[in-house]
Amino acid sequence: MFIGEYRPLLDDRGRVAVPVKIRKAYGPDMIDRLVMAPGFDRCVMAFRPQDWENFVKEKLLSLPQNDPENRKRIRFLLGGASDCDLDKQGRILIPPALADFAGLVKDTVIIGVYDRIEIWSAERYDGYRPSMDRFDEFASDLGV
């Protein structure tokens, strides 16, 4: 599973280094390919190909197709998705449309979110993080 927070820089070519802990999250064989798509809250989501396939089958295609709003959302996610290879240095090229969508310029945040990673503009992510009061409420919601 993907976990953790990392702060790599986006280089001049639009590439970001995927941390080794992320690339080795599923064992000794490094992840060498990710499916990238527009993410919720204006980030970029990136999945291993098999996790992307599960997400599409279980979450997207299970939505009622007779709802025009669902069809619009599915088209946006699938149409905006891109199959991306990591280079030998573990960098991945963020497609320009996705970088624009997420506002990625230089400082980025990569977070592991169980079956996917999210790539954020550092500025947007830092503004999105919950306050400590909200985080304490979350503990209460969990019954902890």
Overall description:
This protein has one domain (5-51, 79-142): Chemotaxis protein chec (3-Layer(aba) Sandwich), CATH 3.40.1550. The chain has 6 helices and 8 strands; from the N terminus they run ββαββααββαββαα. The strands form 2 sheets. A 6-stranded antiparallel β-sheet has the order 1-7-8-4-3-5. The protein has a two-stranded antiparallel sheet with strand order 2-6. Helix content is 37%, strand content 24%. 23% of the residues are buried. The model has no long low-confidence stretch (mean pLDDT 93). The protein has helices at residues 20-23, 49-60, 68-79, 96-102, 122-128, 132-142; strands at 5-6, 15-17, 33-38, 44-47, 82-85, 91-93, 108-113, 116-121. β7 (108-113) and β8 form a beta hairpin. It is of the alpha+beta class and 144 residues long.
Give a brief description.
The chain is 37% helix and 24% strand.
Write the layout of secondary structure elements.
Blueprint: E1 5-6, E2 15-17, H1 20-23, E3 33-38, E4 44-47, H2 49-60, H3 68-79, E5 82-85, E6 91-93, H4 96-102, E7 108-113, E8 116-121, H5 122-128, H6 132-142
Antiparallel strand pairs: 1-7, 2-6, 3-4, 3-5, 4-8, 7-8
